[in-house]
Design goal:
The chain has 4 helices and 3 strands, in the order H-E-H-H-E-E-H. The protein is mainly α.
Length: about 130
């Protein structure tokens, strides 16, 4: 008999997978391998990912794992039916605001005085006693 040692993290991941599989088998739902991510729901139905997350419960999200932000997966058939019934206007994807322009370095202060040149000294970890 071979002994396999698993870390707590691996055991938690295994327990989550077993639990999810059992939930679906007992409920007669879609197996996890056929579930899709929020990004895939958004891509297939023209939603934004944020809209999918905001409406996750309504779309029948299945939470995989524990904690404050478990992974969400969706039954594609159920989402397709609900997406057809959606009459809400979809939000437009947000664009990232442009970065503020940085001032070009001219070598002088705003009053015209020359700036001193400072060289950055790079220290190795051994110089800091880090080992």
């Amino acid at each position: 008999m071979t002994t396999v040692e698993l870390t707590d993290r691996q055991l938690d991941a295994l327990a989550d997978r077993v639990t999810t599989r059992l939930i679906h088998e007992l409920a007669g739902n879609t197996p996890t391998s056929q579930l899709i991510s929020a990004a895939e729901v958004a891509r297939r139905h023209g939603f934004t990912r944020s809209w999918v997350y905001e409406h996750a419960d309504r779309l029948g999200a299945i939470r995989l794992g524990h904690g404050s932000k478990p992974r969400l997966r969706f039954d594609p058939e159920r989402v397709a039916v609900l997406a057809e019934q959606t009459t809400e206007p979809l939000e437009q994807p947000t664009t990232t605001p442009p970065r503020p322009r940085t001032r070009q370095r001219t070598g002088v202060t705003p009053r015209g005085s020359p700036l001193l040149t400072v060289k950055q000294i790079r220290r190795h970890s051994r110089d800091w006693g880090g080992g």
